């Protein structure tokens, strides 16, 4: 697959999912939106399923790169700032774009019924928990670090879901404020 086409097809996939939903996002519609032949999608991705998987891999790579960028911008010894950087990456501009949030929702729903997509979702989930736990274990016992990491992950997913279903979308500032409040209360209760 020529590298120039891959981003074009990923973008077209997200746009079509945004416009008509996953169930109505046919190879024909996606190929028309991308300005390519449906045969290209079938040849390189094996159809809609493979293209959805590649689209989510692209979104996840972007999330990973954004997380690294946010983490590099904060002191490696400031646990609170590092947790907030991880949270901020999850609510970064690209990740809260309407077509990306709808693609996430389609992916989450489909991953319950598809082994390949489910594995991709599990990798993403484990990565988030691992990053959060690593930081939290600097200041909390392992069991408490896991508990707080799970709480933060649940808040990220819950706020994401509510925002994705809201016509106004996800409000990154409000999301970060809610999660920061939770984090600060968890850290304060442990230090008392």
TrEMBL record:
Query: Which protein are we looking at?
Result: HTH-type transcriptional regulator BetI
PROSITE patterns per UniProt: HTH_TETR_1, HTH_TETR_2
Start-end of DNA-binding region? 26-45
What is this protein for, i.e. what is its function? Answer: Repressor involved in the biosynthesis of the osmoprotectant glycine betaine. It represses transcription of the choline transporter BetT and the genes of BetAB involved in the synthesis of glycine betaine. Repressor involved in choline regulation of the bet genes.
HTH tetR-type domain: residues covered? 3-63
User: Which InterPro entries would you find in this protein's record?
Assistant: BetI_C, DNA-bd_HTH_TetR-type_CS, Homeodomain-like_sf, HTH-type_TetR-like_transc_reg, HTH_TetR, Tet_transcr_reg_TetR-rel_C_sf, Tscrpt_rep_BetI
Q: In which pathway does it act?
A: Amine and polyamine biosynthesis; betaine biosynthesis via choline pathway [regulation]
Keyword list (alphabetical) reads: DNA-binding, Repressor, Transcription, Transcription regulation
Q: Which GO terms describe its biological process?
A: glycine betaine biosynthetic process from choline; negative regulation of DNA-templated transcription
Native source organism of the sequence: Photobacterium profundum (strain SS9)
One protein family per Pfam: TetR_C_6
A molecular function (GO) held by this record is: DNA-binding transcription factor activity
> In its keyword annotation, does this UniProt entry include DNA-binding?
yes
| Highest taxon in the source lineage | Bacteria
């Amino acid at each position: 697959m020529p590298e120039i086409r891959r981003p074009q097809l990923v973008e077209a996939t997200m746009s079509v999912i945004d416009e008509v939903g996953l169930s109505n996002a046919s190879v024909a519609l996606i190929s028309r939106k991308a300005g390519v032949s449906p045969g290209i999608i079938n040849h390189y991705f094996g159809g809609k399923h493979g293209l959805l998987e590649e689209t989510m891999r692209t979104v996840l790579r972007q999330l990973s790169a954004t997380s690294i960028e946010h983490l590099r911008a904060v002191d490696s010894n400031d646990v609170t700032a590092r947790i907030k950087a991880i949270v901020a990456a999850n609510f970064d501009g690209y990740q809260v774009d309407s077509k990306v949030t709808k693609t996430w929702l389609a992916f989450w729903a489909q991953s319950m019924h598809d082994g390949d997509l489910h594995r991709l979702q599990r990798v993403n989930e484990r990565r988030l928990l691992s990053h959060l736990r690593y930081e939290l274990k600097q200041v909390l016992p392992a069991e408490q670090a896991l508990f707080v990491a799970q709480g933060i992950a649940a808040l990220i997913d819950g706020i994401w879901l509510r925002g994705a279903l809201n016509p106004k979308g996800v409000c990154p500032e409000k999301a970060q404020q809610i999660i920061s409040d939770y984090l600060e209360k968890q850290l304060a209760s442990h230090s008392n």
